[in-house]
Predict the structure of AAA+ ATPase domain-containing protein.
Amino acid sequence: MCGSRDHGGSLHFMAAAGSSVRGIVLLCGRSFSGKSTVAAHAARHLDAAEVVSLDVINAERNLRSGAGLPIEEWAKTFEMAQSRARTLLESGTTVIVDDTSSPRFLRDAWRRLAAEMEVPLVLVYVNTPVEVSLERHAANRAARSRADVDDEVLQEHLESFEAPTPDEDPVCHSTADGNLSETLDELERRFVAAKADQ
């Protein structure tokens, strides 16, 4: 699901007018994998970037993501996330989507938005072992540093999670042994390659 390719000549980010770049960075990973940490660092690493978090949108709607929401509520939140992303892209801002992005049809929906907006999309797979996610879930329940996820909801999510496939060409980050700076450097490398291809 994660491999290395030569991206020197590909447009993973598209340069807009002037030297600015806009696009979609789509986070994907299991709950408690560290996606929000990667998203926050990526937002600081890239110029003119903003995070769109589906958990944050749920909280704004007074919904608890970890309780297992009806599909229609998730659909509404997803629609709101895409609407915010579209507005940001129109303003020239790169969007970093903080979500599990599973099943794959959700990732494909973001690809359709990128095609509609004529901007590239980079998929970042935060590949954390299931046992690490479970350990973090237990630690969070004790510390309450973020919203809890019900046990049965987490178990169903872990069992049904659809990881990216090779054809999706993700940037892979392993929180078990990966270096975040290397992941951010890869995003930057694709950013620079896109500028060079203007």
In short: The first helix runs from residue 35 to 45. Confidence is low (pLDDT under 50) at residues 3-19. The helical segments are 35-45, 54-60, 71-90, 104-117, 130-143, 151-160, 180-196. The domain at 21-196 is CATH 3.40.50.300 (Rossmann fold).
